[in-house]
Design brief:
Blueprint lengths: L3 E6 L13 H26 L13 H8 L7 E3 L15 H8 L9 H4 L11 H14 L6 E6 L6 H12 L4 E7 L2 E2 L2 E2 L20 E5 L3 H16 L5 E6 L18 H9 L2 H12 L4 H24 L7 H4 L7 H5 L1
Parallel strand pairs: 1-7, 2-3, 3-4, 4-8, 7-8
Antiparallel strand pairs: 5-6
Helix pairs in contact: 1-2, 1-9, 1-10, 2-7, 3-10, 5-6
Length: about 325
């Protein structure tokens, strides 16, 4: 039976951690958040330098990405949207692989089976049926793997959202749907997309649980994801998690949000950004030292420097790759050009 929990779950306001997380886990979560944050910040710089193409920022979304995926095992699958382009880094994917995707280089197309990370999905919500299908396939094979799909609030307005979630619910597939509700689908505000009081309420229509968490609280996201993953793995079917926050960065490098965004709200959200919140929590617990902070940040910065160096050292792509699987015989204009 569907149950929607409307309260916005938070953990960082207290001094306790979710059951099962040791000090080493907290530090690893912090390391992953810093790696993702550094990747995002450096990618904006690389774009401005002309070293990668148009880029979709995920600044302040790191708590959702690191927190939710930390509840998975290596056998579980991740289905990212373009907003989670660097999600493979949490599984050890080379930085240069992700950078090459944004550079339009074929080295940026990885084999999903190597990392259990599906290809980055640019069309909105089309990967939700893919996640549901893989989850169902795992169930049919008697395997215990779970599929976790990430998408934005705008995706809940798409037919693929309905088809994917409904498919998973009807077939009781082991899937977890993580909605990154940052209140904006590019320039379309949430209130222009739905009459539902919350996006988690949509779970009722599919007969599955819906949970709301503070999307800036990495431990709250982890806790909700862990419960959803355990439920899916145990045969309880899918869960819809709504991670709520407010977009504090442009939609992408081609976007100027000042024409539509709530500027004072953005400043408020930037002041309570997720990495800083978690860092203050860890310091309060006595888990994080100044030395550890410096080491983690230096490690992430070195990884990005090495990644862009490796990406730019790759041989240029053969232009014919664009056409090899599109035409049996290229039209004369393309062949001669």
């Amino acid at each position: 039976m569907a149950q929607v929990i409307p309260e916005l779950r938070r953990v960082l306001d207290g001094d306790t951690v979710p059951v099962g997380l040791a000090e080493a886990d907290l530090l690893e979560l912090y390391r992953r958040m810093i790696l993702l944050r550094t990747y995002d910040e450096r990618s904006v710089v690389y774009h401005r330098q002309g070293r990668i193409g148009t880029y979709a920022l995920f600044w302040n979304h790191e708590a959702i990405q690191a927190g939710a995926t930390y509840a998975l095992t290596d056998d579980d699958w991740i289905f990212p949207s373009y907003r989670e382009s660097a999600i493979g880094l949490v599984r050890g994917m080379p930085v240069e692989t992700v950078l090459q995707w944004w550079r339009g280089h074929p080295d940026g197309w990885w084999n999903p089976a190597d990392w259990n990370v599906a290809s980055i999905c640019v069309p909105i919500a089309t990967h939700l049926p893919h996640a549901a299908g893989l989850a169902w396939g795992k169930k049919l094979r008697g395997e215990r793997a779970v599929a976790m799909a990430f998408f934005g609030d705008g995706a809940t307005s798409e037919g693929d959202f309905h088809e994917g979630v409904n498919f998973a619910a009807v077939l009781n597939a082991p899937a977890v749907f993580v909605c990154n509700n940052n209140q904006w689908a590019i320039s379309t505000p949430l209130e222009a997309q739905t009459r539902a009081e919350t996006l988690a309420d949509k779970a009722v229509g599919y007969g599955i649980p819906g949970v709301r968490v503070d999307g800036l609280d990495v431990l709250a996201v982890y806790e909700a994801a862990r419960e959803a993953v355990e439920r899916a793995r145990g045969g309880g079917g899918p869960t819809l998690i709504e991670a709520v926050h407010y977009r504090a960065a442009p939609h992408g490098t081609a976007d100027d949000p000042r024409a539509y965004i709530d500027v004072p709200r953005v400043e408020e959200e930037r002041a309570r950004e997720c990495v800083g919140q978690f860092e203050r929590f860890l310091r309060r617990l006595g888990v994080l030292s100044e030395r550890a902070v410096a080491e983690v940040r230096a490690e992430a910065e070195a990884a990005l420097r090495a990644g862009i160096t490796a990406a730019e050292a790759a041989a240029p792509a053969d232009p014919s790759l664009v056409f090899d699987h599109a035409y049996a015989e290229p039209p004369p204009g393309l062949r001669d050009g």
